[in-house]
Amino acid sequence: MKAQIISIGNELLIGDTVNTNASWLGRFLTGLGFTVSQVYTISDELNQIKRILKRALEESDVVICTGGLGPTHDDITKKAVAELFGVGQKLDEQTLAYIKSLFKERNIPLSKSNYSQAEVPENAEVLFNKAGTAPGMWFKENGYLAVLPGVPYEMKYLMKKRVAGKLREAFGEIGYLHSHYIKTAGVGESTLSDEILGDLSEYFTNGVSMAYLPSPGGVTLRLNASGKTEEEARQRLKKLTSVIHQKAGDYIYGEGKDYSISEAVGQLLIERNWKISVAESCTGGLIANTFTDVAGSSDYFDGGIISYSNHVKVNQLGVSESDLESVGAVSKEVALQMAKGVAEKLETDIGISTTGIAGPGGGTKEKPVGTIWMGWYQKGGEHFAIKTMFTKDRLINKERTKMVLLETTRRMLKGIDTMPYDLKKQLP
Amino acid sequence: MKAQIISIGNELLIGDTVNTNASWLGRFLTGLGFTVSQVYTISDELNQIKRILKRALEESDVVICTGGLGPTHDDITKKAVAELFGVGQKLDEQTLAYIKSLFKERNIPLSKSNYSQAEVPENAEVLFNKAGTAPGMWFKENGYLAVLPGVPYEMKYLMKKRVAGKLREAFGEIGYLHSHYIKTAGVGESTLSDEILGDLSEYFTNGVSMAYLPSPGGVTLRLNASGKTEEEARQRLKKLTSVIHQKAGDYIYGEGKDYSISEAVGQLLIERNWKISVAESCTGGLIANTFTDVAGSSDYFDGGIISYSNHVKVNQLGVSESDLESVGAVSKEVALQMAKGVAEKLETDIGISTTGIAGPGGGTKEKPVGTIWMGWYQKGGEHFAIKTMFTKDRLINKERTKMVLLETTRRMLKGIDTMPYDLKKQLP
C-alpha cells in the first residue's frame, strides 16, 4: 500500500525548523508495511493545502498530514480540509471539555481561539489527543486521511495510540518492513559495489532491496525486506546477508544501524582482555572521545596523551628531539615513537598514534595539508606506521584519520592482513 | 520569485536520513529573496523523478534538486533529467580529469562507475564540484534547474560557489536576508527570555524578527532582517543587537552561527599569550577534540592527558592514591589535583579537568549518574572546583560538562565573577 506525507508549515520551507516529523513518519509507516512514495512540504496557504491534499489522496492509499492546527490565525489546515470535502465545522464536546479542564488546572482563562481548537470538519472522526489541545482527525473519503498536529510528541502520540489502530482497521493485516544494516570500513563505495559485491540483483526478489549509504567514515549497506510478520521479513534477508558476508567479510566491522567502529574494536579488545591507549596529535582528542562515547569503554580504554605541541611529544611520549628536528613531527619515525611511547607510559597492550597536517594551514610542498601518519605498537608484537593523504578540510581529515586508525586496529586484532584502502604498512 | 526544492532518496522517505538539506536550502533561497513554495521528497524512481521535475518546473521559477548522483545503480537522477529533456549524456572532461587526479593522489584505481560520475546530460552546464566527485549541473529549460549531489557539504559548496552566481545572472537584483547569531552559555532559555532580555517586541519592526534556539550547549539567538542590499538588512539589526548586548553581555560568548565556545576561549588565551592543557576523565577527549577542531588552536592548546583509568590519574597527573581510596575519583580533591597536575606536567598557564559519572552505569546512592566535578588551576592564580548534577544520558552529560567547563574558563579569563547556571566555586 502506498502512503504519502504532507508537512504543513512556513517554518519548514524557510528552513527555521528541520522536518524531523516526516522522517519519523516515514520510518513508522514503512515499519507497518506501507511504501512511502512522497513527502510534500508546503506552506500554511489555503489553496495549496487543498490542492496537495487532493493530489496526495489520488496518488496513494493513505495520507498523513501534519501541522497548521494551532490556535493562531495562520493555522488553517482544518478550513482547507473542510472546504476540500465541502463540509462545515462542528464542535467536538470531548475535546472542548478537555481543553477547559486543562486551562482550569493552570488557572488561565479560555480565549475564543481556544474554542476553535475544539472544532473539526463535520465528516471528521476525532482522534482524541491526550498529549495536547489540538485533536487529531481521521477521514475516509477517496482514501484515508489522518490530520495531526505538528508538535512532534503530540503527532507521535496520536500515530501510536490512534492512527496505527485505524490503519489496521482499514487495511486489515498490514505487513512489517525489516531493515538490516551492515557496516563496512576501509573501502570506497564504488570498489565495494563494483569489485567486491558485484551484481546482487538475483537476491532482490520478494521485495528485498539494498542501498549503499556512504559517509566520510565508511559505507553502510541497508538491506530491506517486508513480510506478513517481522520474522518473515527478517528471514527474507538471511540469504543476502550471508552472501554479503562471504564476499565482503574482511571489510565488515559490524551490524546494526548505530554500531560504531570503536565498539567493534572494543569488543575485540574485551575478547583478548587487552587495554589500549592513544597518542594523538592531528586528531587532537577525537579518537579518545570516540572510544569513550561507548558505555563500558573503561574496560579496555585506559586513556591517552594529546601531544599537540612538540614539547608534549618529547616530554610525555619520549619522542626523539633529533628526529623532530631532522624529519619533523609529521613523519613515520614520530608516529612509531608516539604509539610505542603511549603504550609504555600508560602500560597498555596496544598504543596507537596520529600525527599530521589537518589544515587548513600548515602545509608545505613536501608535506601538503592532508598528509597524515598513523602508528601502531603492540607489546611483544607488531610495530608499524601508515601514511595517508586526505583532503584540505580539517574536520574531514580528522574523521577519516579516525576511521583508518580504528579500522586498521580492528584488522590487526582480527588477524586480517590487508590494510584499509590498500594502504601499505611501513615497518620501523 | 518562486523556488521549489526536490530531495531525492529512498533513505529520506523511509526515515533513515533526516532531510536537513531541504531546510538548509530553504534558508539559503529565502535569504536570496526567493519564496520557497514547496519541497518534494521523492524516491530514486525514474518516472517519479521525471514527473516531479516537470511539475516543479511548471510551478516555480527555479528548482533545486539534490540527491541520486552517486556512482551506484540506485542513483538515477541524471538519467531522469536527460530523459525529461530528451537528450543523451556527454562526458565532462574537467570533472573526469579531477576525479582521476583525486584517485591518483590516494592511490586508488578508477572503476567503471567512477567514469559515469563524470557524465552529464548534453544540455547541462557543468557546475564544477571541487568538494567531491559528482559534478553539479545547471539547466535552462522552461525555467531554471540546478541538480546537485545530496552529500550536504558538496551541496552547500555548490550552492554558495556556483548556484548563487547563476541565480543572480538569471534573476538580476535579488534581495538579501541577513541572519545574525548571538551565542550565549550558562543560562537557560526561560531565564534569558523572561528575566534577562524581557519584552523586545518594540524592536520587531521593518521585518526584524528573533528566535531562541536552545541546545544542550547553550542558547543561540537568531536575529533576521531583509533588505534590498545585504548592508541594508544588516543595518536593520544594529539596534536590537546592541540592546541584547547591553542586557545579556556577560552571558554572550560570541557572534556568528558557527562560532564556538572553544574559539572564544582560544581568543582570550591568544590575547594573554597563555597556553592551556586539559586532564579529562569523564569527558574522555571531548574537550581536547573541541579545542583542536578550531584551526590555529596549536597557538594556545598544548595538549592533554586523558586519564580514564585511576592508574593514569596517579602516574601521569600525580593524583593522590590515598584520596582516590578515601573520597574516590569523582571528587573535589581529584578534580583539583588533575587540573594542577596537567598544568604542571605539560607546563601550561592553565589546566582544566573533568571527573564524573557519565553513565548509564556506574552510579551509586551518594554519587548518582550525572555527578560531575570540574577543576581549574591557573599558575600563580585561581585554583577551584565546581560540582554539577546532569542527566542519565552519557552523551548529553559529556556535552553539558564541556559547556560548563569552557564557559567557566571564559568567564575566568574575562574576569566575570558569576558562574554558569549560578553554580558555586569551591576552593581547595
Overall spatial form of chain A: elongated
How many alpha or pi helices of chain A? 16
Distance between the termini of chain A: 61 Å
In the CATH hierarchy, what is the superfamily of the largest domain in chain A? MoaB/Mog-like domain
What is the topology, as strand order, of the major beta sheet of chain A? 2-1-3-8-7-6
Rg of chain A, Å, rounded: 29 Å
Percent of residues in beta strands of chain A: 15-25%
- Structural class, from secondary structure content of chain A? alpha/beta
Query: Which regions of chain A have little confidence, pLDDT < 50, spanning 5+ residues?
Result: none
Oligomer: homodimer
* Largest inter-chain contact set: A-B, 89 and 85 residues
